[in-house]
Design a protein that fits this description.
Number of strands: 0
Shape: elongated
Helix content: over 70%
Keywords: DNA-binding, Transcription, Transcription regulation
Organism: Streptomyces vulcanius
Number of domains: 2
Oligomer: single chain
CATH superfamily of the largest domain: Tetracycline Repressor, domain 2
Strand content: under 5%
CATH architecture of the largest domain: Orthogonal Bundle
CATH class of the largest domain: Mainly Alpha
Protein name: TetR/AcrR family transcriptional regulator
CATH topology of the largest domain: Tetracycline Repressor, domain 2
């Protein structure tokens, strides 16, 4: 769908509150990647982040609240869309961004953990949906520009085209974990672009 997220907190402005948030979110992301959602504990996160336990409980309250903030931070810091002037070029840029994120050992493991938690925890699911919605909306204008240029039919669901780009990459991440290379990213982009041009995503 998206996106590639920078490490949480790396480009946030200064100040003690920002530094505390960055440290806590980094610790939460590391724990998710290393041990999964089930082992996420606010007291342990406070220790790893080297901040007061009371601060963490007061600000985030629950593990799900912390994960929601982590995903919000990742969405905010994800790299912006690339505009190449062609639908295929834009979709390849998007796909390669997704591929690099999911192929990264830390980021791939983090997303696996959050997706697994989202299957049985409604607040985590809602936070994950907001993350993807943010990233899809960031890239959807690339498809709208292709509509405006006449590359794809009017009435194309621009959001569905973006979702179609990353879907095969997430499938690989969750089912086999291998083959997440640039070739796979390019194939996903080419398939989505071909389908979009053929009118597969036209609404109604």
């Amino acid at each position: 769908m998206e996106f590639s997220a920078a490490d949480p907190g790396t480009v946030r402005p200064g100040g003690r509150t920002a530094r505390v948030r960055a440290a806590v979110l980094r610790a939460a992301g590391d724990t998710l990647a290393e041990r999964g959602f089930a082992h996420l504990d606010l007291a342990d996160i406070a220790r790893r982040a080297e901040v007061g336990r009371t601060t963490v409980y007061r600000r985030w309250g629950t593990v799900t609240g912390l994960v929601a903030d982590l995903l919000a931070d990742m969405a905010e810091q994800s790299l912006p869309r690339t505009e190449t002037g062609s639908l295929l070029g834009d979709l390849k840029a998007n796909a390669r961004l997704v591929q690099r994120t999911l192929a990264d050992p830390r980021q791939g493991a983090l997303f696996k953990a959050v997706i697994a938690a989202a299957t049985c925890e409604s607040k985590t699911a809602a936070a994950l949906h907001r993350f993807y919605d943010t990233r899809v909306k960031e890239w959807a204008p690339c498809v709208q520009q292709a509509v405006d240029r006449g590359e794809v039919p009017a009435g194309t669901d621009v959001h569905e085209v973006i979702r179609a780009v990353s879907a095969p990459l997430y499938y690989r991440l969750l089912t086999c974990g291998d083959g997440l290379d640039e070739a796979a990213a390019d194939r996903a982009a080419e398939a989505a672009a071909t389908a979009a041009r053929a009118g597969v995503y036209v609404l109604g």
